[in-house]
Design brief:
By secondary structure, the protein is α+β, with helices and mostly antiparallel strands. It folds into three domains: 1-37, no CATH class; 38-159 and 322-389, 3-Layer(aba) Sandwich (D-Maltodextrin-Binding Protein, domain 2); 162-318 and 403-443, D-Maltodextrin-Binding Protein, domain 2 (3-Layer(aba) Sandwich), CATH 3.40.190. The protein contains 18 helices and twelve strands. It has a five-stranded mixed sheet, with helices on one face. A three-stranded antiparallel sheet has the order 9-8-10. Strands 4-5 form a two-stranded antiparallel ribbon. Helix 1 (4-20) packs antiparallel against helix 2 (29-36), helix 3 (49-65) runs antiparallel to helix 14 (349-355) and helix 17 (404-421) packs antiparallel against helix 18 (427-443).
Length: 446
């Protein structure tokens, strides 16, 4: 890591160089000022401690190569749980309200349309056109994944997909075959029960009641999407698949094959998942989270990654999505320097060797080709799922409408998912409540 003395010495050399050129007199304060002004950038992201270490190491590398740019960081382990100052999205929304947004922020497919409509993000098209941000080595389809309303509002930091990680050694000890990629939720239930009965641990761990592996994946597996094309209504009419999914989860919880809400770890830190300490045999996560979870569990563990199960007679709910984006906020005073950092993150082979695919499969073709031979067994397992899933993945759904944030925080989590899993309400009653209240919010008449 460079010391502050090194930084000042480097800037001093820049000053001397600027003062000796024939075009600028040595005493010109304008020339000195043009060279010594240090450009500050602030970057925010969420993720595991492993992600934070890798990102900080890349930032240090970038600063070494760009001594006039100084980057400060703000990062959070949790995305929603914990409120302002503890969790990412509550804190960043608070920054937006107070006019204190960072220059670069990690963004998510679920919220980028909402933030764009709120005028909080800057279009990147002019920066791409002038060359501050080079996406020429990124396939057009992956660039398009960051478009909102035809404009590039974010650069994908990797590809990922929903997945279930299994402990292959536990499966072997329980004489349970590793399922095929076309497994169903009925298969999942049978496996979870066999693990519980044979090994005395949870068949699966945390978060299966969440909107990602539950509501959205179940609906996709029926061949539909959760929102209408205009984002003003729900996009499906039959609630039974989701009701049955909740009934399965409640049944597994009653049998001790899933943890109760009180037994689940709080927050979204994958290092805290039960499977890390051998308390469960399966965990839902996104493929890019495997490296962090496996690192925490120990490299000697034997994990395999599978796609998310499908409903009986349904299609696969798997789709390839941007794991996260980097976006430049609308208040950033130094967009060219911010774009330069995103360019470095995207195109530098050396930087991506440090990142190790932790945010997903790199989007730049040359980076991906260079990275493959260097992958750890953990990253290679994650990459392998992405390659397999291209054969059966469904089309990437449209961005969530702006109303989704309100629906998630005021209806889905507090009134539906958690009460159902606590058995305060039945799956049928909870899902019916969701349809009524979510439909009203989407229609603008809550």
């Amino acid at each position: 890591m460079r010391t502050e003395q090194f930084r000042r010495a480097t800037l001093s050399l820049l000053v001397l160089a600027s003062c000796s050129g024939p075009e600028e007199p040595s005493g010109s304060p304008e020339a000195v000022q043009a060279e010594v002004v240090e450009v500050p950038l602030r970057i925010s992201w969420w993720g595991s401690p492993d992600r934070t270490k890798r990102t900080k190491d890349v930032i240090a590398m970038f600063e070494d190569q760009n001594p006039n740019i100084k980057i400060s960081v703000e990062h959070y382990v949790n995305t929603q749980a914990g409120g302002v100052g503890v969790a990412y999205w509550p804190t960043l929304n608070n920054h937006a309200a107070n006019g204190t947004l960072p220059d670069i922020m990690q963004h998510d497919y679920a919220f980028i349309e909402e933030w764009t409509q709120r005028g909080l993000l800057r279009s990147l098209d002019d920066l791409i056109q002038e060359g501050s941000l080079d996406l020429s080595d990124v396939p057009p389809g992956l660039v398009d994944g960051g478009r909102v309303g035809g404009k590039v509002m974010g650069v994908s930091l990797g590809l990922n997909t929903q997945a279930v990680v299994i402990d292959a050694d536990v499966f072997s000890a329980a004489n349970v075959p590793i399922p095929a990629d076309d497994w169903t939720w009925q298969d999942f239930k049978q496996v979870a029960m066999k693990i519980k009965e044979s090994r005395g641990i949870w068949g699966a761990g945390s978060g299966l009641h969440g909107y990602t592996p539950g509501w959205k994946a179940v609906t996709l597996s029926t061949g539909q999407w959760v929102f209408s094309a205009d984002g003003k209504a729900l996009g499906y009419s039959d609630d039974q698949p989701w009701i049955k999914h909740f009934q399965m989860l409640v049944s597994l919880k009653r049998e001790g094959a899933l943890p109760t809400l009180d037994q689940e770890p709080t927050g979204s830190n994958v290092e805290a998942l039960p499977m890390v300490t051998g308390k469960s045999a399966m965990e839902h996560l996104h493929s890019n989270q495997l490296v962090a979870m496996w690192t925490a569990a120990g490299a000697s563990r034997n994990f395999k990654i599978l796609p998310l199960p499908r409903v009986k007679d349904g299609v696969s709910p798997v789709y390839m999505k941007p794991s996260q984006y980097f976006s430049i906020t609308s208040t950033c005073p130094h967009p060219k320097e911010a774009a330069k950092f995103i360019d470095f993150f995207t195109n530098s082979i050396e930087a991506n060797k440090i990142l190790g695919g932790e945010r997903g499969v790199p989007v730049a073709t040359k980076v991906l080709a260079a990275l493959k031979p260097t992958l750890s067994k953990m990253a290679a397992e994650s990459f392998n799922l992405i390659e397999r899933a291209t054969a059966y993945a469904t089309k990437l759904p449209p961005n969530d409408p702006p109303a989704w944030t309100t629906i998630l925080t005021t209806i889905f989590t507090p009134k539906v998912a958690r009460p159902i899993m606590r058995e305060d309400v039945t799956p049928k009653d909870g899902v019916e409540l969701f349809r009524g209240e979510a439909s009203a919010v989407l229609a603008g008449t809550p």
